[in-house]
Amino acid sequence: MIAFAACIPPGKLSESLEANAKLYSKYDSLNNKLKDTLTSFNASLDRLKMNVADLNDSVQFYRNRSLALSIPVETEGDLFLNQILSNALLTESELAYIKAGKNAIGVKNTWLEGFKADLKKYAINEDDIKLNKGFVFVDIPSNIMFASGSATLSKKSIQMLGDIAKLLNTQPSMNFLIEGHTDNKAFKGGKMNNNWNLSVNRAAEVARILQTKYKIDPKRIIAAGRGQYIPVDDNKTKKGRLNNRRIRLVLMPSVKQLMNLNQ
To answer: Is the model's pTM score more than 0.85?
Structure first.
């Protein structure tokens, strides 16, 4: 090696050493730039993650705000209920028995018939009590239960709820939904007084009376306000608006209960 170096002219050796030093310096510079770039990239990635988290929070905020401002949004509960209602609980032949007011062996459903007969005393027509794919729907006009714009139950309606509670207590494992519905007329009296709140408050008041006065297990009860968004009649007519202002009970018996409601 010493002999080889001795053969190189001093000027060339000096140039080679200088070039080698420049290459090392350039390598160090590029390596430092790469480290800086990686550091900057990681910082940008962290900021992006934070922005995504903030965006998710904003989406949730505006979802909650839309509900608070009474903007109709299909909730998970709505989707669940619609999925249930889109599937029949019974076979066609079983549904035919139920619709005829009979159980699986052709005997009259005395529970259901008694339910209909009891509610007739309060001017609730048999047409307002419907069977749909295994669910029992009972529509009670709001003017029977509440004064206009009020969520306070009348004395007569509290008595009616007592009769309903007796029938419900004969089937203690049957859950049910209480829905408040309104017409589409604007509700006067400020932002907090609107059809959403009125429908919610009326459903909650019915649930409260059934629980506190008539001792229905609250675990069986679901109370919901549907506002003006599920009409059963034309809101352009007085009669239609009257029909749309209602409390709806949705009884949710098991398949076995549906086939044996006479027990």
So the answer is: no
